[in-house]
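Reviewer 2 asked us to include a model.

Predict the structure of this chain.
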Amino acid sequence: MTETRSERSASRVPWLAVLVALASCSSDDKLEVLAVVEGEAIDLQVDDRGLAWIDDMPGQGYKVVYLPHGGKPTVLGELPGNARDLELGSSHVYWAEGKRILRAIRNRAGYEQILDKEETPDVIHGLALHDGYLYWGTWNRVERMAEAGGEVREVWRHPSEIDGEAVSQPVLWKLISTPDQVVVAAIDPETMVTIWSLQPDGSARLLAKSSGLFQNLVVGADRILWLMLEGRDRDHLDFRTYAAPLAGGTATPLDAVRGKPLFADGDAVYWSDSRGTQRTDPAGTKRVGPEAWALRRAGRRLYGEFPVEGPGCRIAILGGN
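Predicted model (C-alpha cells):
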C-alpha cells in the first residue's frame, strides 16, 4: 500500500544554521560551512543540483533534509524510527526505513511510501539508483523496482558457496552505483564481506572476498577500497584498507591509508582519522582538513560531514581541494 503524501508544513529548518563564510576551525582548516546539523548526519549524498542527508537524533527519530546549491535547506520528512541509505534521484530523494522505502520530491516538504515489506521477514539495506531502477539488498538477495515505482523483481541471489567453499549468508548490504554497474557489498558483520559487480544481465562477478569486520566501502573510477578490522580476537584488532581493480583482480592492502577511506579520486585516496582528513597519492600523504565522517564530490568541490564538539556535525565544503 502507498501512503498519501504527507500534509506536513512546508516550513524551512530553524535548527540548521546556514552560513556563507569560512569557518575558523584552525589556521589550516578552511571549511565553507553550509549547515550545522542537530543530530548525526547519515548518508550524505551530493549531485550537481544539491545535497541531501538524514539527520539522526537518537530517541527523537530522524529528519530528511535537502539543500539545493546556493539555496536554503528543507525538511522533506520528520519521522520516528531509524532511517538509512539515502539516494538522490532525478526528481526525488529516496531513503530506507526498516522494511519500507520512502521518497520525497526535492526541495518540497512531504513524503510518500513506495514500498512496504512489513508482511515479510525482509529488512531493506543499501539503496542505489542505476539506469532508471532503484536497487536494494534484503536477506540473501538484491531486488529492484523502477525509479517511478511498480513491480519488485529479484535481480540476484547471493551464492551459498564460492569456489567450492561454503560461505555465510549476508546480514547487511551496501550498494553503490557507477556509470556502468552496481557494486554490491554483501556483509556478514562478524566474519567477512564479499564484493560483487552486478551485471546488466542479472549475473554478478566477484571482485573481492575479505575476512574480518567490515567497516566501509568506497568506489572510484577504476578500483574499489574497503576498510576491515582484523585480528585474532576482539581485543587485538587493527584497521586495514584494501583495494582491488573494479574490472576484477587481486586485492592488495594500502598500508599508507591508515584510517577510514572516504573518497577515491584517480590515484589519490582521501581518508580520515582523529588527526584529520588526509590525502594519499603517489607523492605521499598530507593533511587537507579536519576529521570527516564522509566526503562526496560534485563538480570540482568536495562536500563532507565534519564532527563538532558534543552532539551534531557540520555539512561543509572542504577548501583547497
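The chain is about 0% helix and 60% strand. The first strand starts at residue 22 and ends at 26. We have added this to the supplementary material.
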